[in-house]
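Amino Acid Chain and Its Fold in Token Form
===========================================
Structure side: the spatial fold of the chain, written down as a series of whole-number tokens.
Position: the record begins directly beneath this header, with no further notes in between.
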Amino acid sequence: MIFYLKIYNVPIMYYEEIFIFASIMITLYLVRHGETEENAAHILQGQTPGHLSSLGREQAEKLRDILRPIFFDVLVSSDLKRCIDTADILNQERKLPLHLTKLLRERDWGSFTGRMIPTLQGIAFPEDVETLDTLLERSTKFIAYLKEHFDGMTVLAIGHGLVDRAIQSVVFGKPMKDIERMGNATYRILEIK
């Protein structure tokens, strides 16, 4: 006798006590961290820790309330402080295990790191700035990481403005310039097959 059960619209066949599972997509809630003191001061943070501002904490608390009805299997975050602090706020009631990864770090701005963004207008990038190709490659590795460890799960992931755009660029097959900028403590839902 064969029974079919639908989960996420993917049939799972049960036959003589043997389960045959089809690969199920990952539902990714991709979040940008809350505002930092450095964001407010227009400082290029890159891969420095960053410090959530009081507004950034409020933004994360509001996002936590918005996401409250959604079930998540796992929480993944950049290993930089501003994302970990955002993740901690989003995870206060959930108590999900937190998986940290360098793959979600912001673009490495090299010697531009820590400088005031307005003073960099029109200046050519130094050679030590992470290239967009390298950022997209890292984003592709992040997608592979999700597929390897969290297939079929609903994942809440906290990253940064540019890496989040790069991930969307990879998933949607669009150039990064065509991906809308994410505000602080906002999210996008991506389906990864």
